């Protein structure tokens, strides 16, 4: 039984007149009569006592009326619920990002967006690289800010944000500290301070050392650039890290940053799924991204 027919039944029951009910429903009186007859046929009972002056509910109609009103009430509730959910989706963005956002200007993007569109909520979560890929694939993130050494073969659209490169982080008094560039094999006898093992950056560092002909002597792993730099400044070893986060963290120049040759570069970009009909919030965020990255 269609919801619209139940609504017509309730209105007719309330006004008690076919013409008045049909006018309020913007349908013809014969159409209303056919619809009421269909409800009665579906239920197997007549619902009204009809006379020339007034239409009144019979016993079956009086029993059905509270259920009809309840059906309409439930229909209105779930309609409102889904409308609210749609509105919430349109005005909320879920964003995944690399842990070190500030050195790449990502926090500036968030700030600009929030100032421009204060009514749109940003839910920002730091993620590992594989977590960001999965979040995009499963539509749990609208955008992600990722760092990649090489472009993966996937369907995602990317907007370049910054370029970065791997550097050797050395104590100030290290023999190689004053060099402009060094080869990785020059560090083969050093104790290495690297990112945590489950990170893409750790894999990159180990792979690069192996390609340079040696297995790195890893003495410490850390999630924090600040911790690694502090240990290097205390001559606990040397680190391999990305240049821009190191420059951001080490404002006091406690360590020396020496570029690796050949250069190992990484691209930081905003990635999102191609969508012919992006939501309101996604359109606006994309507009800010494109404006700030021209």
UniProtKB/TrEMBL annotation:
Keywords attached to this entry: DNA-binding, Transcription, Transcription regulation
Protein name (Swiss-Prot/TrEMBL): Hydrogen peroxide-inducible genes activator
Domain named HTH lysR-type: residues: 1-58
Database matches in InterPro entries: LysR_HTH_N, LysR_subst-bd, WH-like_DNA-bd_sf, WH_DNA-bd_sf
GO cellular component assignments: protein-DNA complex
Classification via Pfam families: HTH_1 (PF00126), LysR_substrate (PF03466)
UniProt key word Transcription regulation: yes
PROSITE patterns membership: HTH_LYSR
Family: Belongs to the LysR transcriptional regulatory family.
Keyword Nuclease included in the entry's annotation: no
Highest taxon of source: Bacteria
GO MF terms held by the record: DNA binding; DNA-binding transcription factor activity
Originating gene: oxyR_1
